[in-house]
Design brief:
Number of domains: 3
Strand content: 5-15%
Structural class: alpha+beta
Helix content: 40-55%
Shape: globular
Number of helices: 17
Number of strands: 15
Distance between the termini: 54 Å
C-alpha cells in the first residue's frame, strides 16, 4: 500500500483568482502530487486547497505554496469573516493510507522546521505535531488573530516552535500540524443575526459557553470561569453572518467524524435552532468530504423514514444532499467533492462505466477481453441485484410496514455484494491484460527470462484468484436470493428465481476461468487448493439453485 497523506492549507485570499491560481500552480508543479480541490470564499476572504500524494512530495508542494502565498498576500490589508493570523493561516497534514498519524506528525515537523528556517517565518505546531498540551488547539494558538499577534508573539509562552519570535507584518505567522480528517461544515439559518447564530453555536460546540448567573461569570474555586459544555463532542463552532448570501450560519469543524458524524451535527443544530425560534434552511460543506460521511447520512435519513437503506451509493448520496440541503447555496457535485471519487482511476472501471450496448459491443468484438470471466462477474452482479430489488420492494409492501427493517438489512447485504461483484468485472479483464503484458516482457538473457517467468506466474495466479472471488461472492448471494424467494414479496418471486439462475451461471462460468488459467500455473499445491475450493463451490451452487427454483415454482403455483 502506498503511503498517502493529504494536505489542506488555508490561504488568506479568497477574492483574487489570479493570486489563488499562482499559489495552486506551485502545488501542481510537484511530481507525485494531485490537486483535488480549490474552494475560495469571498466573504471569508480565504481559500481552502486540498491535495494528496506521497509524503515527501506533499511537504515539498506545501512548502512552495507557503512561500508563494507569502509573496502574494499582504496581511496588513486583509479583512475577512474567518479568524486568521497569516497568509498561510493553517497547513494540516492528514494521513490517508499506509501511514500513521504519528508518522504524519514527523512530516509536519520537517515542513515546519524548513518553513521557519528557509522562509524566516514564525511557525506554530498544532494537534498531533504539538507536544505541549497547552498549544495543541488551533483556536487557542490563533486567539488574538493577526492584529493581536504583534504583542502575543513576544510573550515567552508564545514563542514560535520554529522561525523568528517576531510577527511578519506582510505574511503574519502560520500554523502547521498533523490531524485526523476534519470536515468543515456550515449550517444555514433563516436569520441575519450573528448573535442568535452564536447562541446556537454555543449550544452545540463541545466547549459550550461560560456559565453566568445574574449577568456575572461564575468561577470555580481556583478562580477560573465555569463552562457549560455543548451537546456535540469533537465539534468546534461559531456563528457568523455571510453578506454574500444574506444569512447567518453556524460554522463548524467536525474534528472527529466517528464521534460526531455529519448528519448528527446537522440534526442537533436543527433542534437547537428550533428551540430558539429559528429554522435551518440548508447547509454547505467547505472543501472535501469522505464518501462514508455521505453514505452514513443517507442511511440515517432513510431509517428515520422507515425506508430500506439497501439502495445504491448514488441514491444514498442524493438522500444526504436533499436531507441536509447541501445544494441550497451552490450546486453540490459529488464527483468534485467526495475525496474517494477524486482519487479514482477511470482505467480501473473502464467496463462498468460503459453503457450496456457498448459493453456488449466490446464483448462481441475480436478482442479476447472482456471475456467469460468478466461476463461471469457481471451475471453474478445481475443476480444479486435482482434479489436486492425484491428486498427493497418487500420493505415497501403495503401491510408489511412492521417488517421494513428486516428487508432493509437483506437489501443492505445485497448492495454490498453487488458493488463487490461489479468491481470484479474490470478486475478480471485487468488480470488477463497482466498475463499478456508478462508474456511480452524481454527474454534475451537468463535474468530477463527468470523475471519474465516470475511475472507470468504472478499474473496467472491473479487470473485464478479473481474468478474464484466471483464464485465466493455469487455463492454467498444465493443466501439472500433464497431468503427473498421464501419470505419476500410473492409478486416478485420470479425475480428471485432469475437471480438464482444468474448466480449459478456466475459460479459455474467463473470456475471455468479458474480451471483454464490453472493450466498455466506451475505451483501444483496452489492449483490443487484452488481447484478443490472451486469444485466444492460449484457443487453447492447447483444444489442451492435447484432448491431456490423449487421454492419459486411452489410460490408461483400458489398465485
Amino acid at each position: 500500500m502506498k503511503r498517502i497523506i493529504e494536505c489542506v492549507p488555508n490561504f488568506s485570499e479568497g477574492r483574487d483568482t489570479e493570486k489563488i491560481r499562482q499559489i495552486t500552480h506551485e502545488i501542481e508543479k510537484i511530481e507525485g502530487v494531485r490537486l483535488l480541490n480549490v474552494d475560495p470564499g469571498k466573504a471569508t476572504h480565504r481559500t481552502v486547497v486540498t491535495f494528496v500524494g506521497e509524503p515527501d512530495a506533499v511537504i515539498e508542494a506545501a512548502f512552495q505554496a507557503i512561500r508563494k502565498a507569502g509573496e502574494l498576500i499582504d496581511m496588513s490589508q486583509h479583512i475577512g469573516e474567518h479568524p486568521r493570523m497569516g497568509a498561510t493561516d493553517v497547513c494540516p497534514l492528514i494521513p490517508i493510507s499506509g501511514i500513521s498519524i504519528e508518522e504524519t506528525a514527523e512530516y509536519a515537523h520537517r515542513l515546519a522546521k524548513r518553513v521557519g528556517k528557509e522562509l524566516d517565518l514564525p511557525v506554530y505546531l498544532y494537534e498531533a505535531a504539538q507536544s505541549d498540551p497547552n498549544r495543541k488547539n488551533l483556536s487557542i494558538i490563533r486567539a488574538g488573530e493577526y492584529e493581536g499577534f504583534f504583542k502575543k508573539i513576544l510573550l515567552p509562552e508564545w514563542k514560535p516552535d520554529f522561525g523568528p519570535a517576531a510577527m511578519d507584518p506582510k505574511r503574519g505567522a502560520t500554523v502547521i500540524g498533523a490531524r485526523d480528517f476534519l470536515v468543515a461544515y456550515n449550517v444555514n439559518l433563516n436569520t441575519t443575526s450573528t448573535r442568535r447564530a452564536n447562541a446556537v453555536a454555543f449550544d452545540v460546540r463541545e466547549a459550550g459557553r461560560v456559565k453566568q448567573e445574574n449577568g456575572k461569570v461564575v468561577k470555580d474555586a481556583a478562580g477560573n470561569p465555569v463552562s457549560i459544555p455543548g451537546t456535540l463532542k469533537s465539534v468546534k463552532a461559531i456563528g457568523w453572518f455571510i453578506e454574500e448570501y444574506g444569512i447567518a450560519q453556524i460554522s463548524m469543524n467536525l474534528t472527529n467524524i466517528r464521534v460526531t458524524p455529519l448528519h448528527m451535527a446537522f440534526d442537533e443544530v436543527c433542534e437547537r435552532a428550533r428551540d430558539r425560534g429559528m429554522r435551518v434552511t440548508g447547509s454547505e460543506l467547505v472543501g472535501l468530504v469522505p464518501l462514508q460521511s455521505l453514505i452514513e447520512a443517507g442511511k440515517y435519513f432513510l431509517r428515520k423514514q422507515n425506508r430500506s437503506v439497501g439502495v445504491s451509493e448514488k441514491a444514498l448520496i442524493d438522500m444526504a444532499i436533499r436531507s441536509m440541503g447541501l445544494d441550497e447555496l451552490t450546486p453540490f457535485k459529488p464527483e468534485e467533492r467526495v475525496i474517494e471519487y477524486l482519487l479514482q482511476d477511470p482505467a480501473e472501471q473502464k467496463l462498468i462505466r460503459q453503457s450496456l450496448s457498448r459493453f456488449s459491443e466490446e464483448t462481441a468484438s475480436e478482442s479476447p477481453a472482456p471475456g467469460g470471466g468478466s461476463i461471469a462477474a457481471y451475471v453474478g452482479t445481475l443476480g444479486v441485484s435482482l434479489a436486492t430489488m425484491v428486498a427493497n420492494l418487500s420493505s415497501h409492501k403495503k401491510g408489511w410496514d412492521d417488517r421494513w427493517a428486516e428487508f432493509s438489512d437483506w437489501a443492505e447485504k445485497g448492495e454490498v455484494l453487488r458493488q463487490q461483484l461489479l468491481l470484479l468485472v474490470d478486475a478480471d479483464t485487468r488480470a488477463f491484460d497482466a498475463i499478456m503484458s508478462a508474456f511480452g516482457l524481454p527474454k534475451s538473457t537468463d535474468a530477463e527470462k527468470q523475471s519474465r517467468q516470475a511475472a507470468i506466474q504472478a499474473a496467472t495466479k491473479q487470473a485464478m484468484e479473481v474468478p474464484l472471488q466471483v464464485m465466493r461472492l455469487s455463492l454467498q448471494s444465493m443466501e439472500l436470493i433464497q431468503a427473498m424467494a421464501t419470505h419476500g414479496n410473492p409478486n416478485s418471486v420470479s425475480d428471485a428465481g432469475v437471480g438464482a439462475l444468474c448466480a449459478r451461471a456466475a459460479v459455474l462460468g467463473a470456475y471455468m476461468n479458474v480451471r483454464i488459467n490453472a493450466a498455466g500455473c506451475t505451483d501444483a499445491d496452489y492449483v490443487k487448493k484452488l481447484l478443490a475450493e472451486g469444485a466444492q463451490m460449484e457443487k453447492e451452487a447447483m444444489i442451492k439453485e435447484e432448491q431456490i427454483r423449487t421454492l419459486v415454482d411452489h410460490q408461483i403455483a400458489k398465485l
